[in-house]
TrEMBL record, chain A:
Enzyme Commission designation: 6.1.1.20
The species this protein was found in: Nocardioides caeni
Encoding gene, per UniProt annotation: pheS
HAMAP family: Phe_tRNA_synth_alpha1
Location(s) in or outside the cell: Cytoplasm
Protein name: Phenylalanine--tRNA ligase alpha subunit
Automatic annotation (TrEMBL), chain B:
Protein name in UniProt: Phenylalanine--tRNA ligase beta subunit
Phosphoprotein as UniProt keyword: no
InterPro entries: aa-tRNA-synth_II/BPL/LPL, B3/B4_tRNA-bd, DNA-bd_dom_put_sf, Fdx_antiC-bd, Fdx_antiC-bd_sf, NA-bd_OB-fold, Phe-tRNA-ligase_IIc_bsu, Phe-tRNA-ligase_IIc_bsu_bact
Annotated source species: Nocardioides caeni
GO terms of biological process kind: phenylalanyl-tRNA aminoacylation
Length: 365, 837
């Protein structure tokens, strides 16, 4: 736009004088330094470095000077403008940094605000409990076997040495499908899974069978017509009660903590002979000063389940060569185990489906 | 089984160091588990003495009651009472009337404490100072003897002033044991004491070891028709019995300590002998028995009135009820309960005593059939020592003579002989092998002899063992192993891990099921476990039609509730109820899931019952399994009420049909399963908001909004949504090995189209047409907007899709992408009538 001499105005030539240029530069530098933010700096830039700024006007006037004066004036104005532009850039950078920092400060939020927009889910402790148990055994090289809950009478009873006149087979204890002479029951224990395993596999067999089972118990704080069991079966050459004890000790310590062991008491189960009740060292008081302990009620021990050496009659019915193989089996209630492990007062809380109960366990136990 | 410690000590010579605690510990270790220890009188403190009533003045009161103002001689115990005058006696007011002057009674004096922390002091009442209390059985915490009054001490009891505790049997602890079914012999003092002797290695006096008269068959004529059901029958007769003779205190107390009621001398004696020896016996009023006794199975149409006054129809035939008969027919349900017609009464003077050995299976069946559980039946059905009848009958006679003034008639009838015990062959190293404990052959044999078995001489490490007569449970070598090991001690079993387990870890299905649970929990759903029982009313609540296949259930023969007599075919009822419960308890919203088995009838006939001596064949095993109901695992979900909360971030959202679809689609995607969604109507879903889920044209379930009626019925907020599907089918469709994907990194070409279609056209159909028409350059199609309203016209809707194109090897030109888009739109137009906006 501005070419030499086009806007020549001799009146203003004085603006190129050294004093004027110096004054304009100093005024510009002072204004730049005084600019408090980018907005003010923008105004300062327009006033002191814009087209109508004194230094710009002075620059324009250079062309009107006599040739001998031009060089000197050009140098003088150029230096002043350079100093102003440099100061502008520096101040701008400075203010930019300040601005960014201020924005971040201004954008701060209350990080303690709640964020519970989506509900939290949870798996049931009976599921995660069964998985915990399964994992303990899988880590020992065992497998998890399963079977149907509605089961053949022969597999639930006969094959397990519970003969036709065994008390457990009465209508008082077992749910039968209708008609009862269909010989089909809601399994009363997970033992038929053991029978199925022996019928379909050849030893060595190491399986745990968690699952739901049924008895015709009225529903109250400690009884339920449906509950959950885990049973274990090992069939191999040379299996003894020592292996049973070792396995249950390991199970106990994994489930309840290092140093928690088991003890055996003679008992009777048709499925096993010799048979034993398994007690667990109380994992709360550890048998020391048990009197005030609520978990074991002062016993120092907690009744945990039953076990024994698999009765050879069972091996025979399920096609395992009892002259070559022996085995052990054990079983305990998962519901009951959870009840004393977590201090639950009422069995029914497991089956009510109240989310406050289930979410309290988290997704793992 | 309750056993008084004093009675145990009478039969076994236990050292003083064996306290009750030591005794119960040892017996528990041997297999007689301690249930509890009772000690009567343990909570009674202070002076409890025998007194003699000197005078008894009856004083009627204004309230109509008559009280007795008694003066009681308390002998030397007077020293305990300040100012006691032996001539006057202790003044006590008593409200009971079953005693009189001259009777000896039990008195608690001031300073004493009765059960329930009832403190006794001298106090003014009915115009007298009553200093003490004349006690009844219940006030002392003893079982009621039926007299419902204060205890009258027999004349031959202790003298006034004597501490009453010994007389009352206080201080004698009674141990309750839990007896396992294989230890029926321990349902007697004889058995418990024998175990104690075994446990402490001390001598044992067998109370059954007694001389009996020579068998001459002359006590009574007995004909046993069924020697299998009744191998041994012993009969004795006494006469001149005094029916009013009281039961001696020690017999009465022991019967009561065992938890039975004292009834009369004759009955108490038979119970006492049963407790002592374990052999149930029965006494008949001999004058009411017509002719000879017979033992046979019941005949068709026969019935009997038992001692509990119940009229019972008897079950005939070889598996039927065993009965005792006389000329009139059945007079007793053998081994379980006697009959009313020959019951001993207050006038009986001749008693026919029966002690017999019965077949346990028959006893069990009779008890089960008649729902009769008696102390006798409990022992007979578990197996009693068959050598006992003669001695037990003799013992009953002895006690009737001793305490009832009776005379033992000569003659002893004994029909049959005890079946011989089978000999069990066992390798002497088997106990060591199976227990893992070092047990020598010598130790094993020694312990077998200790339980009363006869052990033949060793031969090549194998011995023949004949168990004692009281151990019918011992039939197998393993039974003998348990005997040896329990004596060695279960606590001696070492702890070793088996070394050979080499499993393959969880199966794929097991891992997938865990994945499903975790995924759903991750999506904010809470797992529940509910009962699988349903009834017609349940299905009515779901609105299922009469012919809905889900109504075809597996019925239960003996359901707990007649309202829910079947195993469920659907998980929704339990889940909806749980959701309603949460809402009812104030939850603003609930998201639940359950995975469980449901059952559908297979109608493949009854399941066979096989023998157990050999394994069933493969075909037989298959038959067992085919006979069972079909039992797939289902997954069900319910979403009700608030699904997303409102908050400072803005409004929340209630669960809707689309949330259910979102849950199931997300799950399918995670599992790598292609799920097809089409519209359907099926209860309990909303008819216009129900999606059918299928995989490869096979239905696996439904998802969508619940029918408003169903929401209402289960107390759920409107618009609640649910899913139910066959989880087995879903998991079966998961790819075992996912193929590695190939994708291009060339630039993406974006083409968005808005298509107007009839409102009835589904988004899925339009999308499928676009996909098919777009050709190989298409990378993805996604519906990003759906609109109905004035701008598209009545009966129409607008669907906006984002089409994304990419070539594997080059940048697409605008022309190429446009052509592909046009082809897609053209296909949609021809298949669905879509018009581009
Ligand atoms: Zn404890």
């Amino acid at each position: 736009m501005s070419g030499p001499n086009t806007d020549y105005d001799p009146v203003e030539v004085a603006a190129v004088s050294p004093a004027e240029v110096e004054a304009a530069r100093d005024a510009a530098l002072a204004a730049i330094a005084a600019a408090a933010d980018l907005e003010q700096l923008k105004a300062v830039r327009s006033d002191h470095a814009g087209d109508r700024s004194p230094l710009a006007l002075a620059n324009r006037e250079i062309g009107a000077l006599p040739p001998q004066a031009r060089k000197e004036a050009g140098q003088r104005v150029g230096q002043a403008r350079g100093a102003v532009n440099q100061a502008l850039a520096a101040r701008s950078a400075e203010l930019e940094v300040e601005h960014e920092a201020r924005i971040l400060v201004e954008e701060s939020v209350d990080v303690t605000l709640p964020t519970d927009r989506d509900p939290v889910g949870a798996r049931h402790p009976l599921t995660t409990g069964a998985e915990l148990i399964a994992d303990i055994f899988v880590a020992m090289g065992w497998e998890v076997a399963e079977g149907p809950v509605i089961e053949a009478e022969w597999l639930n009873f006969d094959a397990l040495n519970l003969g036709p006149d065994h008390p457990a087979r009465t209508m008082q204890d077992t749910f039968w499908t209708d008609p009862a002479d269909d010989h089909v029951v809601l399994r009363t224990h997970t033992s038929p899974v053991q029978a199925r395993t022996m019928l379909t596999r050849t030893p060595p067999i190491y399986v745990v069978c968690p699952g739901r089972v049924f008895r015709t118990d009225e529903y109250d704080a400690t009884h339920s017509p449906m509950f959950h069991q885990v049973e274990g079966l090992a069939i191999d050459e040379g299996i003894s009660m020592a292996h049973l004890k070792g396995t249950l000790d390991h199970f106990a310590s994994q489930m309840f903590g290092e140093g928690i062991t088991t003890r055996f008491r003679p008992s009777y189960f048709p499925f096993t002979e010799p048979s034993a009740e398994v007690d667990l060292v109380c994992f709360v008081c550890r048998g020391v000063d048990s009197d005030a302990c609520r978990t074991c009620r002062g016993e120092g021990w907690i009744e945990w389940g039953g076990c024994g050496i698999v009765n050879p009659r069972v091996l025979q019915a399920c096609g395992v060569d009892s002259s070559r193989y022996s085995g052990f089996a054990f079983g305990m209630g998962i519901d009951r185990t959870l009840m004393f492990r977590h201090g639950l007062e009422d069995l029914r809380t497991l089956f009510e489906g109240d989310v406050r109960f289930t979410t309290a366990f988290g997704s793992e136990l | 089984m309750k056993a008084p410690v004093s009675w145990i000590r009478e039969l076994v010579d236990l050292p003083e160091t064996v306290t009750t605690e030591v005794l119960t510990d040892r017996l528990t270790a041997l297999g007689l588990k301690l249930e509890g220890i009772e000690a009567a009188g343990a909570d009674i403190e202070g002076p409890l003495v025998i007194g003699r009533v000197l005078t008894q003045d009856k004083e009627p009161q204004k309230n109509g009651k008559v009280i007795n103002w008694c003066r009681v001689d308390i002998g030397a115990a007077g020293e305990l009472v300040e100012g006691y005058d032996p001539a006057e006696g202790q003044g006590i007011v008593c409200g009971a009337h079953n005693f009189g002057p001259g009777d000896k009674v039990v008195v608690i004096l001031p300073g004493g404490v009765l059960p329930g922390d009832f403190r006794i002091s001298a106090r003014k009442t009915y115009g007298h100072v009553s200093a003490g209390m004349i006690c009844s059985a219940s006030e002392l915490g003893l079982p009621e003897d039926g007299s419902d009054g204060i205890i009258v001490v027999p004349e031959d009891g202790p003298e006034p002033g004597t501490d009453a505790r010994e007389f009352l049997g206080f201080g004698d602890e009674v141990i309750e044991f839990e007896i396992n079914p294989d230890r029926a012999y321990a349902l007697s003092l004889r058995g418990v004491a024998r175990e104690a002797a075994l446990g402490f290695g001390v001598p044992f006096t067998d109370p059954a070891d007694r001389a009996v008269p020579e068998v001459d068959g002359k006590a009574w004529e007995v004909v046993v028709d069924d020697p299998t059901g009744c191998p041994v029958f012993a009969a004795r007769l006494v006469s001149g019995f005094d029916p009013s003779a009281p039961t001696p205190e020690h017999i009465k107390r022991r019967v009561e300590q065992a938890g039975m009621r004292s009834i009369s001398l004759a009955v108490d004696v038979t119970n006492y002998v049963m407790l002592e020896l374990g052999q149930p016996t029965h006494g008949y009023d001999a004058d009411k028995v017509a002719g000879s006794l017979g033992v046979r199975r019941a005949r068709a149409g026969e019935r009997i009135t038992t001692l509990d006054d119940a009229v019972r129809d008897l079950s005939p035939g070889n598996d039927g009820d065993l009965v005792i008969t006389d000329d009139s027919g059945p007079i007793g349900l053998a081994g379980v309960m006697g009959g009313a017609t020959t019951e001993i009464s207050g006038t009986t003077t001749r008693i026919l005593v029966e002690a017999a050995h019965w077949d346990p299976v028959s006893m069990f069946r009779t008890g089960k059939r008649h729902k009769l559980s008696s102390e006798a039946g409990k022992r007979n059905e578990r197996g009693v020592d068959p050598l006992l009848p003669a001695g037990a009958a003799d013992r009953v006679v002895e006690l009737l003579v001793e305490h009832g003034g009776a005379t033992a008639e000569p003659g002893f009838t004994l029909v049959g002989t005890a079946p011989p015990q089978p000999t069990v062959t066992i390798a002497t190293d088997l106990p060591a092998q199976l227990s893992g404990i070092e047990i020598s052959a010598m130790t094993a044999v020694e312990h077998l002899r200790a339980i009363g078995a006869t052990v033949a001489e060793h031969e090549d490490g194998v011995v023949g063992v004949t168990p004692p007569s009281w151990r019918p449970d011992i039939t197998d070598p393993h039974d003998l192993v348990e005997e040896v090991v329990r004596i060695v001690g279960y606590d001696q079993v070492p702890s070793l891990l088996p070394r050979r387990a080499t499993g393959r870890g969880l199966t794929r299905l097991q891992r997938l099921r865990r994945r499903v649970g975790r995924s759903l929990a991750g999506a904010g759903l809470v797992e529940v476990v509910s009962f699988p029982f349903v009834g017609e009313a349940t299905f009515d609540r779901l609105g299922l039609t009469a012919d809905d296949p889900r109504r075809a259930t597996v019925p239960l023969a003996n359901p707990l509730s007649s309202e829910e007599p079947a195993y469920t075919t659907t998980l929704l009822p339990g889940l909806l109820e749980a959701a309603g419960r949460n809402i009812g308890r104030g939850a603003p919203g609930v998201a639940l899931f359950e995975t469980a088995t449901v059952a559908f009838p297979s109608d493949n006939g009854p399941a066979p019952i096989y023998g157990v001596h050999t394994r069933p064949t493969e075909a037989e095993v298959d038959k067992l399994i085919e006979a069972l109901p079909v039992q797939p695992q289902h997954l069900a979900v319910v979403l009700a009420g608030e699904r997303q909360r409102s908050g400072w971030w803005g409004a929340g959202a209630d669960a809707a049909w689309s949330d259910a679809l979102a849950v199931v689609r997300r799950l399918a995607t995670e599992l790598g399963v292609e799920l097809r969604v089409t519209a359907t109507h099926r209860m309990p879903w909303h008819p216009g908001r129900c999606a059918l889920l299928s995989i490869d044209e096979v239905e696996i379930g439904c998802a969508g909004e619940l029918h408003p009626k169903v929401c209402k019925s289960f107390g759920l907020p409107a618009r609640a949504a649910a899913i139910e599907l066959d989880l087995d089918a879903l998991l079966a469709a998961t790819p075992t090995v996912a193929a590695g994907p190939q994708f291009s990194t060339m630039p993406l070409a974006k083409e968005d189209v808005a298509l107007v279609v009839d409102a009835s056209v589904t988004a899925a159909d339009v999308e499928a047409a676009l996909r098919d028409g777009a050709g190989p350059l298409l990378e993805s199609v996604r519906l990003f907007d759906a609109y109905t309203g004035a701008q598209v016209g009545e009966g129409k809707k607008s669907l906006a899709f984002a089409l994304r194109f990419r070539a594997p090897d080059r940048t697409l030109t605008e022309g190429e992408a446009g052509a592909a888009r046009d082809a897609a739109v053209a296909e949609a137009a021809s298949r669905t009538g879509a018009v581009q906006r």
